């Protein structure tokens, strides 16, 4: 939420949102999505065997959460990309 607030404040100015802010926002979104998927996996572990059936609501939520982690905006490559941006490496605006 802090990165969303920071990006919003920056967007209210006259200049474009900086690459470092875009990188921090994308990293925060990646962290949030992957953490949520981990939580759903843990809940399924606790729910036991009934949660593995296709008709189970928790099974559907696990599929949805896991599918979200594959999106290009929050996929594993985000860590390398945002690391490059935040550590001063070469990153184009189209990548973030």
State the major sheet.
none
Distance between the termini: 19 Å
Secondary-structure class:
mainly alpha
C-alpha Rg, in Å? Answer: 17 Å
**How many individual domains?**
1
* Count of alpha/pi helices: 4
Plain-language structure description:
The chain has 96 residues and is mainly alpha-helical. It has one domain. Helices cover 64% and strands 0% of the residues. It is built from four helices and no strands. Helix 1 packs antiparallel against helix 2 and helix 2 packs antiparallel against helix 4. The radius of gyration is 17 Å and the shape is elongated. The mean pLDDT is 90.
Question: How would you briefly describe this protein structure?
Answer:
This protein has helices at residues 2-11, 19-47, 57-68, 77-86. It is mainly α. The chain has one domain (2-86).
Task: Note the main attributes of this structure.
96 residues; mainly alpha; 4 helices; elongated
Layout of helices and strands:
Blueprint: H1 2-11, H2 19-47, H3 57-68, H4 77-86
Helix pairs in contact: 1-2, 2-3, 2-4
């Amino acid at each position: 939420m802090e990165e969303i607030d920071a990006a919003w404040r920056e967007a209210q100015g006259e200049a474009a949102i900086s690459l470092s802010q875009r990188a921090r926002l994308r990293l925060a979104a990646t962290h949030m999505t992957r953490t949520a998927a981990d939580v759903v996996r843990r809940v399924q572990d606790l729910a036991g065997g009934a949660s593995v059936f296709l008709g189970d609501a928790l099974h559907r939520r696990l599929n949805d959460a896991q599918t979200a982690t594959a999106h290009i905006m929050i996929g594993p490559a985000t860590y390398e990309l945002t690391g490059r941006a935040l550590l001063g490496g070469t990153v184009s605006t189209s990548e973030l």
